[in-house]
Amino acid sequence: MPSDGVTGDSVPSEPLKDDAVEVNVTSTEVPFHGAVWNIRRDAFDYNGQTIRREYVEHTGAVAVLVEDDEGRILLIKQYRHPVRSRDWELPAGLLDIEGEEPLVAARRELAEEADLEASTWEPLVTFNTSPGGSDEVLYVFHASNPGAAPQTFDREAEEADIEVRWVPLQEVVDGILDGRLHNSILSIAALALHAKKGARP
After folding, report:
1. Cys staple from 56: which of 38, 45, 134, 145, with CB 3.0 to 4.6 Å?
2. 122 among known catalytic residues
3. Sign of CA dihedral 198, 93, 114, 90
4. What is the mean pLDDT of the chain?
5. Rounded distance between C-alpha atoms, residue 80 and residue 87, angstroms
């Protein structure tokens, strides 16, 4: 029986699943308050040790992979200062309205960033963007049957010069695998949809 190479246990037959763990947090503080995110410092007990970690305290976010009836997906290009790049990505935004459900936020962000709405929505993938350094959870929805939103939005700052393009899914996947597209949300979402379509009979 194969082992996992760490604990020596046999590989179980049930599907892979992450385990939620509650630890005893012995102290917590916010040494840095930012305009959007804070840095939190925790001390906690784990395996008989006291461990200290700092991480970005994040509101969470949503993204939308919109597909038209030709199988093309909507990409937007905008400037991202930390990586000094105008990268291709999906319409996305923060869960920064208290009590707002992810699907409601996704609909709002699609309208605000691309002046679009869609009649069909389903969850595509949910993931932690950087679990070693942030508590952010990202909810991606697959939207189809798009149409013009009833109102358009004025965009400012980095969003003022957003470029919009409809691109075949395979072209996006090729760009990811060739190393030409680097946005993590786009990569995960496009590859997830590509895998989902490939799994269909």
Report:
1. 134
2. no
3. negative
4. 90
5. 7
Are 115 and 152 contacting, i.e. CB atoms less than 8 angstroms apart?
yes
Six-digit token string for 177 = 């695998």
- pLDDT band at residue 2 using 50, 70 and 90 as cut-offs: low
C-alpha separations of 11 from 6, 16, 21 in Å: 11, 10, 21
Is this prediction's pTM over 0.90?
no
Q: Which two tokens stand for residue 15?
A: 């599907």
Residues 6+ apart with CB under 8 A from 139: 60, 61, 62, 63, 95, 102, 106, 123, 126
The single residue of 57, 100, 117, 159 carrying the catalytic annotation is 159
Nearest of 20, 21, 23 to residue 50 by alpha carbon: 23
Residue type for 103, please?
Answer: L
Write the pLDDT tens digit of every residue in 75-107: 999 998 889 999 999 999 999 888 899 999 999
Q: Tell me if 96 sits within 8 A of 60, measured CB to CB.
A: no
